[in-house]
Amino acid sequence: xxxxxxxxxxxxxxxxxxxxxxxxxxxxxxxxxxxxxxxxxxxxxxxxxxxxxxxxxxxxxxxxxxxxxxxxxxxxxxxxxxxxxxxxxxxxxxxxxxxxxxxxxxxxxxxxxxxxxxxxxxxxxxxxxxxxxxxxxxxxxxxxxxxxxxxxxxxxxxxxxxxxxxxxxxxxxxxxxxxxxxxxxxxxxxxxxxxxxxxx
Length: 200
What we know:
Elements: H1 4-36, H2 38-74, E1 76-87, E2 93-103, H3 110-118, H4 124-134, H5 155-167, E3 175-177, E4 180-182, E5 186-189
Antiparallel strand pairs: 1-2, 2-5, 3-4
């Protein structure tokens, strides 16, 4: 004969085990349906794709705004164009054209731009060449890597630049900027310019 106090707990444990087994099977069934049913999984993928596209669009807008601001604030305008040419000792003609630019926030005075553009530069290239030949640069960017007479050496470029600073001079000017009176001038050779090559 069995004691009734021992039977009840066993039935309780059995019922609990059955309930846990049923819950496990239900969860497993739901997981399998979600895994194998592309229709149910598609909305989640669409939401993730939408978030990704939204973030990409926001980043693109920010980049465009940043570029517009930088261009507006740090844009440059070509004020003066100077053509130069000369005949080397070997009889070959070399020529180059330089554009001089100032930042839009610090513009070159119109009177100075007009004066420089109207100047006769026809003999200046020869003066620069003759001076650069007798005053080669003492330092240049490739001096530690290449001999001075190497065609790849930048000594000729440095020598030409020093001579240009001597013969192409602008009247001084200052413009009231955010930090007080300022001045900035940049120059750049146009494609096809080869004045430095006559010194190599």
